[in-house]
């Protein structure tokens, strides 16, 4: 404790870092950031940008960078992205930004991204499913997993789905994103013995639209799979990461 | 009018037949039978046995036989079937009975079943979908359509689905029955350019069970198809029949 | 393969056309266009403009024109229409544009629109149902079907409905669009022996509004009909087209 | 007060009658009977038999007879009917029983049924709607209204509906009972300027079954009408009675 | 027919009036106006302004004025009102406008508003219910009914509800508008023997908000009443008018 | 620990009592009984009889009696009651049983029921609400609260509700049970400044039946109250008890 | 009465104060303000700003200040806040404003805020729950309760929840606000014997979002608690206040 | 092929085994058994006993034993169990039966159960969740996974949950079964970095009962997890098995 305070006193530790060290989280004007989440749960806290002002997003991202050397952000608007890039450009000029649709991963040079031998397959049915799959992918990349991304293989053109069966089989775990009637994860899970995480996407209008039919279909699937909530790319990516890390450490332990 | 009354008087016409002739329908203790339905709508009135006493079912079947030379019954319980067979055996000893699961078609020798050149494909995903498909099939058989029945080709074993693609293409119209997540009609409709009528089946427990996920999935399908209500085998069969008859008369007219 | 590459090299084939030829679809910045859909499913891929930027709509339309000689677009906003007309005016100056409410069909002079002898009746209950019916109609026109359009015959003025019964009977298949309580398809299907496709429309406020009561009513209809999802004009038009084409080829085959 | 107690003491008034006189209601083992309901609300309290033992039904019926000279019962099972007829036969040997489906009205000779000049039209779409309509009718008969009952005029055979338009117009108020898609009240209300009370009936299976589609359709009707809950025959009959009585007293007052 | 055409030719009849006379309705750019609705159904067609451009609203209002001497408009925005007043000021300079919240009734001097002896009580629970009640009231005023309006008597201050019981009793029919839990119509219907039409209002946030709890409560009410859909002021007013007119003509007939 | 084992060894403590002492709960064939629940949460674990065999109910009741000197049981069927009385009569011959509808409280002579000065008012709208209110009441009685029970004061006879206002005011907390539209808690909460806990009851058929409308109405109430789930008499009683005990100890502490 | 009028005449009483004195409420252009609500129900009427113009909010706030010396406002937008501060600054220059998120309490110097000895614990799961908890808190502060606010103790970091168990135990009543899956109130209610009021918050996207899962979870909680509607901070605060005041007066009475 | 037919001819292969070898599945009177499912999907087809006659269950079990040396059955009634044990006792006298609640695994001596090094933790909240967890467990045992079962650690007694945190951490994957509000998987997933599969159980009455609140809560969980449908023990066990096998083969491959 004394050490920490000394470090804060001599400037080698910021107050936020010290608070994170002591309590596990940091509280600022924009709310709380749970710096210890990754340690405890294996998945870092992501900053959900939706419903926050650009200033709040920037503050939380900076706290994340200060205490964990990187920030993972989801559902960013164009305006939030612009503020973020400008602010981080000043406060963390050496940080790198990786964007996927409306998600972003910012890392300081201090961060050493881990590397997992396990492969996560990420599959989309159509163009409209890509943003949600991108959010899942960024979570997996942050954890250092190997990614095999397969886009646009919806069942309306079944040949293309079948052509990829071997790639599906080679993954350690699959995330399959689909909207409308959400049949793709069922079709894929019927073809391979890889664990499948169904990720319903809020496309489609009319009855059962906005992902409802897709979620229902994945919960009722005549094959074995589990599912996450509609548009919950972060959760699908997190769950796949936890599985990939378990696989990875099984390999390591047995070495 | 006078002719009819004379016929009733001399016993060559039953009162029910006369009422059907004059008003189009017959009213008895068990309710009304719409004898003119087939003429008007192209599809005969079926007797929905569910919720009726065996006596009511028998009375309605006899009225149907008397006025239209055949009776089409759906959702028969074992007890209703037994009463029916025994009663009809006495009142219409020459009638023939064709059963499919809990549906039955009874015909007097006077009835000349029509014959349609058009083919209706009827496809099921699994064992649990067969009773509903049987109800649809009997409606189509009553109309004299050619039936191509393909069972047990659900997407959990996709090879078997794909193996039948050519048969699906040769039909003039397809009825595809599926429960659980109801992906089969979507997969088939993506393979062929035949009109598909989706028939959701009330299988599955938990959320979206009892056919709800299947119906939602057919309404949200990423390919083109129309749907009928959950377990509505009669409606699917009727709609396919109307299409088949249109196709049939197109052939005839162009001869 | 070599031939195609030669054609691309000498400029007689665009890269998009070559990709479509080889893979069946074309992938650009705005997503994927499935050029082989029509061949496989009988119905071309329509470009759903809703949720896309004007630039994306233009790009997809141009890809469609390049590879299939026409583009079918639905749910266009005024701003998207303006961009589209201006862009296509330059890139395909000889193309013709046919608009119906917020749907559009663009064709290059190379396209020879097919002609089907079968007649599709398209019926609306009221003014509010016309845009959805227009979307259905454009799909049918693209396929060359004969259209018999009957507007404003909702059951609140039943005489007008009944006056058209003969026209309803003459069609090979009927699309009946209705919002609010959606009684019109039931009333029409009770009058004629033509196949009816119910098309619920998202009008009405309060409980069961936005097309829910209409869809429920069509699924529960006491007569025989099938239904598509709320506002799914494209699907209704596509299903009617598939039926019309089956009828048409029955006529041809029997010639 | 003293008078009442004297009457109880000398046996000319039963304790139940005295309690009803003093407090407006009577409390027994089977629950409370609100003897003053009719005076206050214009409609007597009906005894809902469903979920009660035959003994409870008998006790409540006897209390009703004792304090209001008649008992109105709804949703009676066959077993409850048998108990009731046997018990009342002993306790009120002179009472008369009028049954309609599973509703019953029992009256002692002391009761003088009122007579209303106003006419209530009660219309059903099909056989399955008759029991609920019967419940409504018995409430109206209890109040002495003139009833014009028209059965089996559902829209699947529209001519029969139209044939009755003049009878519909002559009623002062119409109750229209319909299940499935519930289109009949909308069709009738579009034909006549009589107030229509929609009474949805819990028929139909699958999605929107059990009266849900019918209720939704009546609430969304494109014409003017009000509705009661699914199967609420008592409420529809009560509301029609209140209107009929208002009409009746308007006639009287103006005499 | 010839007469009409002569009248159009000499300018004494507008083309719209002639079309209305011949067909019962008039079709313009903004859709169809059903000029014969009032005659057939007793309630004129109201122009639902929501979702229409100011130009469409003006066109429909002018058609209504031309063919029926008045226009009834509901759900007008401020911008639509402004356009309307300016346009009508020019085309029908002598017309009078009566506004209630976002509803309006415009009449030409040629219109002679009828007068009904029957009284319609219109009651609101709170401030938020007034706009919907105003819509109902304007329909009743258009028909010439006597109105007794009682505002702000919600059950949170029950004394004020009870204080008005006598006024409630004197009405021939009551419309009771309430949002949130919608208890007011139940409380009033328990106090008086007047027919009550429950009018649920879309207030309230959270679960059961937007009028759902209010509608459910009115359908489940432990007293006798009928209901209309959420916010359906026009329907409630129309139904009350039909009842009032029946009462009124009962008085007249008996004179 | 040693002490406990000695006590078990010499028979002065049963094994179940020892397990409860050590772990807080006891596990038998019929499942786990949480003997420490009352200490931790202030409310004992009740034995939900529904879905259990009579033997399981008896075993759990005996465990409860052995470890906490009393057993609180809810949703008992007649058959379960009979088994229970017979078994307890043998195993705990001195125990007393207090029944309220389908709930029961069994106490050994060792139990000294506490006494709370605070008063809990328990109010029902009608006969049908009494069983659920009885379940709540027994929980409160078990805790020794003073109970003021007021039955049959539903809003359909509002005078009776108003007559009891002073009793409602004198309670420290009120539980108000109501089914159908559930208006009673709203009406009472508008009259008094006592905390009200709404207890919706699963009565009513049709839309919003089975307590749904009542729950919605309590959540949307225009006055201040909290609610528990439909038929959750135990929860309502428990919550009232926790409040009563807080009030009681406030009195004690201030003595 | 005469006294009041004299006071109005000589200006010592405003007309609004006089109306409030006589009728209990004041009616202005912006609607009705129920000045007697607090006296009757123990909780003042709050002004729900949502859906009102800034002018209406100001008018109602001024009426509240005039008649009850303070105004409690909820769901204020930034624009409404600005208008309010400017207007009150002029009309009540000595008033003090206490803001919590989008709720505000304005008091004139004449108001003597009461003081309650009872403590209300207000707990939030995360940052997103704070605004709703703030609304609840302001209601409790207005009543003078002692508040113990504990933020950011959601179950994702369970240690922090457990660390606060003693503070939870010391409160007389707890409000626990949580969105998403809403597990926090269940976890806390399992730890302490304090009454818990669950306050679901409308966070979360996808299925069960907007507070639905949280509300369901609180109604189904395996421990004892009651709940209010989603986002109903005012109701939770009001209910806690009623309990706190009962506790407080128990202490006083026993002094 | 010839070899197979020879084997059938000489009796060394049953017709069912031959059909399974050739087509992958066997079709009998009781429906189809997919003998190749395990090979393709990694999880064998389970026989869902619910809704089947005892004879059908026996037939399907015998087919499974004949073609895959074991049968996995779920949702068995007592009557089905009895038939099964008696029939298998005769046809496969050496088979062993392992039962867990209403699931059973029957194996012939020919079957060599595999062995997986990976550990699957299976956790239940309460007694009511055990049958569903047992179904999941049997699927995992069939695959040879190491099982760590932890029962009765629901959050109502949080200490017991926390006491097991280390066991939870040691598993490679966790299935957490919970009904009512379903908070347990959220609490556990917040404590450990193991992948968690939420398994909602259909306990709880009232709103959100039958597992709905539990499913919603798992989909909305503030931590990372995936979920399966309500009561879908087989699916949860299958998904955990697929993960365990991936982990297992990772260990093997790295050896």
TrEMBL record, chains A, B, C, D, E, F, G, H:
Task: Give the source's domain of life in one word.
Answer: Archaea
One MF annotation (Gene Ontology) recorded for this entry: hydrolase activity
Q: Which residues does the UniProt record annotate as the domain PurE? A: 118-249
Q: What Pfam families would the database entry show?
A: AIRC
Q: Which GO terms describe its biological process?
A: 'de novo' IMP biosynthetic process
Matching InterPro entries, A to Z? P2CMN_synthase_LarB, PurE_dom
Name this polypeptide is given: PurE domain-containing protein
């Amino acid at each position: 404790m004394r050490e920490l305070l000394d470090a804060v006193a001599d400037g080698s530790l910021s107050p936020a870092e010290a608070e994170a060290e002591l309590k596990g989280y940091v509280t600022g004007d924009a709310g709380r950031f749970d710096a210890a989440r990754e340690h405890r749960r294996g998945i870092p806290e992501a900053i959900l940008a939706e419903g926050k002002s650009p200033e709040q997003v920037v503050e939380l991202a900076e706290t994340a960078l200060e205490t964990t050397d990187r920030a993972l952000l989801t559902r960013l608007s164009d305006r939030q992205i612009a503020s973020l890039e400008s602010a981080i450009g000043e406060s963390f000029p050496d940080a790198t930004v990786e964007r996927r649709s409306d998600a972003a991963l910012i890392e300081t040079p201090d961060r050493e991204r881990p590397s997992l031998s396990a492969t996560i397959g990420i599959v989309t049915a159509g163009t409209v499913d890509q943003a949600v799959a991108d959010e899942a992918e960024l979570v997996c990349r942050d954890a250092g997993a190997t990614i095999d991304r397969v886009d646009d293989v919806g069942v309306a053109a079944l040949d293309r789905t079948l052509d990829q069966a071997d790639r599906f089989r080679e993954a350690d775990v699959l995330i399959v994103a689909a909207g409308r009637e959400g049949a793709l994860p069922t079709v894929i899970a019927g073809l391979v013995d890889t664990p499948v995480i169904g990720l319903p996407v809020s496309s489609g209008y009319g009855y059962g639209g906005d992902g409802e039919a897709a979620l229902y279909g994945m919960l009722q699937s005549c094959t074995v799979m589990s599912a996450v909530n509609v548009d919950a790319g972060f959760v699908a990516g997190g769950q796949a990461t936890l599985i990939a890390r378990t696989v990875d450490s099984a390999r390591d332990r047995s070495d």
